[in-house]
Amino acid sequence: QAADIIHTAFDAGVNFFDTGHNYCHFHAEPRLGRILKPLFAQHDRSQFVLSTKAGTIVPSAPLVFRNRPCKDFSPDYIETTCAKSIQNLNCDYLDIFQLHGITQDQITPALIDGLSSMKERGMFRCLGVNSHSAADLLYIADHPELFDMVLLDFNVLQLDREPVIRKLAEAGIGVVAGTVLAQGHLVAGKIGS
Questions:
Q1: CA-CA distance, 191 to 185, in Å (whole number)?
Q2: Which of 137, 141, 167 lies closest to 153 in space, CA to CA?
Q3: Which residues pair with 178 in a beta bridge?
Q4: Can you tell me the distance from the alpha carbon of 99 to that of 177, in angstroms, rounded to the nearest whole number?
Q5: How buried is residue 125: exposed, middle or buried, by Cβ count under 10 Å (0-12/13-18/19+)?
Q6: Which positions ≥6 away from 65 have C-beta within 8 Å?
Q7: In this predicted structure, what is the pLDDT of residue 182?
Q8: Is 183's pLDDT higher than 90?
Q9: What is the 3-state composition of the chain as percent helix, strand, coil, each rounded to the nearest 5?
Q10: pLDDT tens-digit profile of 104-135?
Q11: According to the model, what pLDDT value does residue 149 have?
């Protein structure tokens, strides 16, 4: 079923595929990689935009993970995760590598140095952040020399994001809208009526 969806999407012109290393209990990347492998054999790799995320170390993204760390933004962990994502996705590099839920105080000089080295070595082309915090997104907007894009929540129930999106765009940072169906609130029969 997943393969049919990906193949149908690609045939219809969709070429941006976003996932995360911890999604579906760490199975999403390997599954997508198995599906993409035959497509890579038939089409030039440059026709695909592959995006994934690192930093979350639990098998899903809970709001609270009691008494245990659920994030790791140490340079070693981030590089190891990026390398594993490249392997999982059967690709030579990532188009977009996102820091999953990082806060501005977790963006350390050592992490930036590590990410710069990874980018220079061709592990990824663009650096992004996946965040739902307006303060952290505004920090990203103030540092376009470090970041290329953000993935944020934006839908008809969260129009308050428009000023943040405007500031990011003015800084030259790409914006990808996530949660476009408002976590199911806009899907009939899923949540509410």
A1: 5
A2: 137
A3: 153
A4: 16
A5: middle
A6: 58
A7: 72
A8: no
A9: 45, 20, 40
A10: 999 999 999 999 999 999 999 999 999 989 99
A11: 98
| Strand, coil or helix: 165 | helix
3, 17, 4: which is closest to 53 by C-alpha? 17
pTM reported for the whole predicted model:
0.89
Q: Which helix (H) or strand (E) holds 168?
A: helix 162-170
Question: Can you state the angle between helices 2-11 and 28-42, rounded to 10 degrees?
Answer: 40
CA triple 30-130-123, angle to 5 deg: 55
Q: Tokens at residue 192, please? A: 């509410």
Predicted pLDDT of residue 106: 97
E strand or H helix at 125: strand 124-130
Q: Which residues pair with 99 in a beta bridge?
A: 54, 129
Give CA torsion, residues 84, 90, 94, 98, to 10 deg.
-50
Q: Token digits for 34? A: 């198995």
Question: For residue 84, is pLDDT > 70?
Answer: yes
- pLDDT score, position 193: 47
- Could you report the per-residue pLDDT of 58-83, keeping only the tens digit for each? 886 555 556 566 899 999 999 999 99
Q: Indicate left, alpha or beta for 186 from its phi (over 0: left) and psi (-120 to 50: alpha).
A: alpha
User: Over the Cα atoms of the chain, what is R_g?
Assistant: 17
